[in-house]
Amino acid sequence: MSDNNQLPAETPGHAHAHGGPDHVPHVLPLWVYFATWGALMVLTVITVGASYLDLGAINLVIAVGIATIKATIVALMFMHLKWDLKFHGIIFSFSVIFLGIFIAFTMFDTEARGQADHVQSDRPVNVKAPFKGTAINGKQEAARLKAHGLPADQPLQPATLAPPN
User: For the purposes of burial, counting CB atoms within 10 Å of the CB of 86, is it exposed (0-12), middle (13-18) or buried (19 or more)?
Assistant: First the structure.
């Protein structure tokens, strides 16, 4: 009696399950992991120390720079990108570059928030006549006011919009 429950050695779904020409396990000596841990701890201490310094906008640059170095160490050592195909390193590098671009565009928005608040608080909007005195409605409104004999500082009422007799 033959055992039909076993799969052949080279089934298409399991051809690359463990090992093979495209997957070579990479084992590092234990001291490399301890050195990586030590470098990450030193960079963490530097990050904490830098947070106590008041350098203005440079603090953000320092924090992001140290975080980038730490992320690079993790990617190179723990994700084994240092020993992997260069194509994978390129893909990872471009993802970091695009992340930086997205953060930069976000910072453009957050750096400009609140800059127009003092201007807008000096000129609050008249809810009854929001376009009064602007280029959008200036000449037409002035002509209607003159035609109806209304003072210029009062908004038009819906009943006064009809043409004069």
Answer: exposed
Domain containing residue 140: 119-152
Specify if 123 maps to a domain. yes
Whole-model pTM over 0.85: no
10-residue stretch averages of pLDDT, the chain, 165 residues long: 50 47 73 94 94 89 92 88 85 89 86 69 67 62 71 56 56
Minimal CA–CA distance to 82: which of 44, 38, 35? 35
Helix (H, G, I), strand (E, B) or coil at 48: helix
**137 and 105 co-located in one domain:** no
Task: DSSP for 132-156, please give it.
Answer: TTSTTTHHHHHHHHHHHT--TTSPP
